[in-house]
Amino acid sequence: MKTTTRVAVIGGGVVGCSVLYHLTKLGWSDVVLLERSELTSGSTWHAAGGFHTLNGDTNMAALQGYTIKLYRELEEITGMSCGLHHVGGITLADNQERFDMLKAERAKHRFMGLETEIVTPEEIKKFAPVTNTDGILGGLYDPLDGHLDPSGTTHAYAKAARLGGATIETHCKVIETNQRADGTWDVVTDKGTIHAEHVVNAGGLWAREVGAMAGVYFPLHPMEHQYIVTDEVPMIADIIDAGGEHPHVMDPAGESYLRQEGRGLCIGFYEQPCKPWAVDGTPWDFGHELLQDDFDKIEDSIAFAYKRFPALETAGVKSVIHGPFTFAPDGNPLVGPVPGMRNYWSACAVMAGFSQGGGVGLMLAQWMVEGETERDTFAMDCARFGDWITPGYTRPKVIENYQTRFSVSYPNEELPAARPFRTTPMYDIFEGMGAVWGAQYGLEVANYFAAGDEPRYETPSFRRSNAFDAAAREVAAVRNAVGINELHNFGKYRVTGANARTWLDRIMAGRVPKVGRLSLTPMLSARGRLIGDFTISCLNEEEFQLTASYGSQAYHWRWFLKNLDDGVNIENISDTRSGFQIAGPNARDVLQACTRQDISDMKFMDVRQLSVGMADCIVQRVSYTGDLGYEIFCDLPSLRALWSVLWREGQPLGMKPFGMRAMMSLRLDKFFGSWLREYSPDYTAAETGLDRFISFKKDTPFIGRAAAEAERDAGPARKLCAFEVSVDNADVVAYEPIWLDGKVVGFCTSGGYSHHAEKSIALGFVPVGNVVEGLKVEIEILGKMHPAVLISAPLFDADGSRMRG
To answer: Does the keyword Oxidoreductase apply (predicted)?
Structure first.
């Protein structure tokens, strides 16, 4: 066995082999894969082998498309067969909500270049004759759907990697991973120790145990999963004898997927009475075993399947495959550099390995070799979960994700498992005021406040929900009087030290403010992509506060530590510093009533340290609502005292609480972008308009400067714009295609209803050449075309006189 290597990949399933292959494809040939048994041991060997592109996240869908197209390439490179069957697939809709979801997905696919289409029940019956279409409204057909041979495909990845110079060691169990002072790793195995610059955890069912060797908790859990292969089915035999193949059929109502297997059928279930497996750890001697058959838990699923696919009822059972595979709490993989670790990478929780494994391997290899990925990978970035996550949280969320695998996914849905978990001292107060809660990064956040006999639950919908009236009330309170909103869902960082300003100048593209002022700035990757949207507040020459997305804490923290300079100290104070924003025409009067210090001369973008009531606070004259407003921060133990004085003095001035539903409406009035919607690593500063905050005048070679300057000189190809949309009761959510002259020319990033202007608004990208005031386009929402017009004047306070006055 080798004693040194650039990369040690731990785990020989389809994901580990994909990572190994892609590393060689990108030029790293000194790489080794360590597998404790044979390749495919664990989950890979017993996988059903299906693949599809359908995914709620567009980047994940694109990577699934890449994975599927890669298989032909692997066959050409290796001369091996992956056992490909590109038979196409149909996802059924038995009610309007499911059909709406499929139409929304089809719309997304238009600008992604995926050739899916909506099909009628009659077309479904013709295309997939084993299906009983009674009660079916329609379906989504994807020609890329199919299935393959799991073992053959994994070995094709492995051979392609070997051809690129990689080494694979089977029957080589990893026992320890010990990091040296220089950041490299000693990987101790039962065959000896290998010294690796980088370690990749692709441990699959054993990813938790492999992570524990390095002191890392990976939030994933194995679940039992069962599918059945039948004896010959006459209808399928007839199709084969005629030279055809039956397509896949996904039946969300029955929580099942079905495909042809030989001359019979294979059907698997995501049943409600599901079972987590290996709760306290995966046995090391588990590998090519299966679990005991458990027909009881799929009894109802089978009964439903007999009605949907009548041919099953008379088909004999050839075999039952019942084995475990892993999920993360939201069902997406855990990929990327592990926050807080050096040279330790994750490629875990890839539950759909044959749909996603190629994309996971490509993204991780790009990350390792080139320093960043070609697209936004946050949906599968292991940094989307922070150090707050625990096994006690992970397990119920994984169970919930398994149970909702085929459920309708609504844009406003708040899933209930493992909640409430993390709360602030305001939780009980807001609960008593009628708060309807959402969750971000494990933290409870008020979405809106129900009044009177309004339900304390927001109905999931693709259309305007029962939160609509409450959001309108809260918007009116902000615009006409004053609203108050907690600041707990901001990521907050304290930067101190003699070199703090110099470091901020290098890591941020914008201007670092003077003492007593704040600035807005993008944070860029080396390629000029947006990786952060920050507010910098200068409290003194050696102390700054940064605020950004709460849900991106681990993502940003990883970047800070990677680029930290000597003489700089940084603390994540997101959960130790909180506070409130107050906004509206009466906001100044409320704040002045709460402090003895004169704030009449406090200008827009000023920051001061004030005593507000009994609390020592950092007060910023800025508000995401686009109104006259202040952000007031204090330490967590002072939070309720700060609330008490603000609420008491605010009552005579019409103060009302407002939540995130109102906030998202208010920001549309000013066309303010939102992180991971308008601003993400998929986009650049010039495309989104954030280039106006880049300080090209400063001498610092800030990260991403060369790329930003090149784009400034050449100009972007597309531009983020605002549109007023003519709709009935369904607003833009995200990724709806924008049509011009019968062609898709762009897509939406987000949208919603402006309660202040009483208009439906969409934000989205179109080619620069089309960006003209009054441009008339159509936006496809839930399968219908809606007229829209490009607008540039903000719907509220267009000249900024109230916000800045």
So the answer is: yes
